[in-house]
Specification:
Blueprint lengths: L6 E6 L2 E6 L10 H16 L5 E6 L3 E3 L4 H5 L3 H20 L4 E5 L2 E3 L1 H8 L2 E5 L3 E3 L13 H9 L1 H10 L3 E2 H7 L4 E3 L4 H13 L3 H14 L4 H16 L2 H11 L10
Parallel strand pairs: 2-3, 3-5, 4-6, 5-7, 6-8, 7-10
Antiparallel strand pairs: 1-2, 8-9
The protein binds coenzyme A.
Amino acid sequence: MRDYKTILFEERDGIGFVTINRPDAMNALNGDVLDELADVFAYIGSADAIRAAILTGTGKAFVAGADIAHMRTLAAAEGRDLIIKGQRVMALIENTDKPVIAAVNGYALGGGCELAMACDIRLASEKALFGQPEVNLGIIPGFGGTQRLPRLVGKGMAKYLIMSAETLRADEALRIGLVEKVLPPEQLLAEAEKLAKTIASKAPIAVKMAKLAINKGVSLDLDSAVAFEAEAFAGAFASDDRVEGMQAFLEKRPADFKNK
Ligand code: COA
């Protein structure tokens, strides 16, 4: 167990469980939360024993945004520094080799919606609420929201949500492609764990290469993207686990992947 102030971290059966734990402030992202998320996801990325991670929040919120009380005190240049720091944490989560599942238990507003979007897959509680309410505060989304939201839901819907600051229920978030599945609140974590274990049982290098190909490819033109896919495919094909996976299929037995 690592020693954190604002998050909880547990490692169990090859899964890293990260819980943002500032329920009195709706898990708002202050500097400490961002630092601790950076630390824990760097660890998750480097820990051989961890095959997948789950990110959730304590209480009524997943994360209700960047910490407004802290932001109110910042000078203009400090605002930019905060955004750059937050963007680095989102990129670290998005680019870690390990699959990261957001289990969105409640409010995912502003930086919380952006944090969920930096994860690979989003499962939402029926009680979750999503939105980018920054224009209510005289700012815009700055932890990647103006870029990841249109990539997930399209430019028109992203502009609608960001310019109107409208809040979406989980079923609406599902309809527009902002989340992948909606679950009753009491099933959310169990379902996230089940999905994490399913992914963790697959060939780890293949999972890593699939994540890389999708993440890098979406920002490239199609020819460059499929060329990148060929390299990622070759990376998986060169692994011992590819030989094991195919051999196991032919021998009609479960594969024993070694992450090699
Ligand atoms: N930053 C800092 N503190 C926050 C916060 C944030 N983003 N969101 C909530 N809090 C704090 C509140 O100030 C309040 O603190 P207090 O008890 O000291 O007064 C506490 O969390 C509980 O929030 P409260 O507003 O009383 O709860 P609620 O159930 O009535 O409403 C929300 C919940 C999430 C709808 C509401 O808190 C909210 O709109 N938060 C801001 C969302 C936002 O604009 N995010 C984008 C930030 S860029």
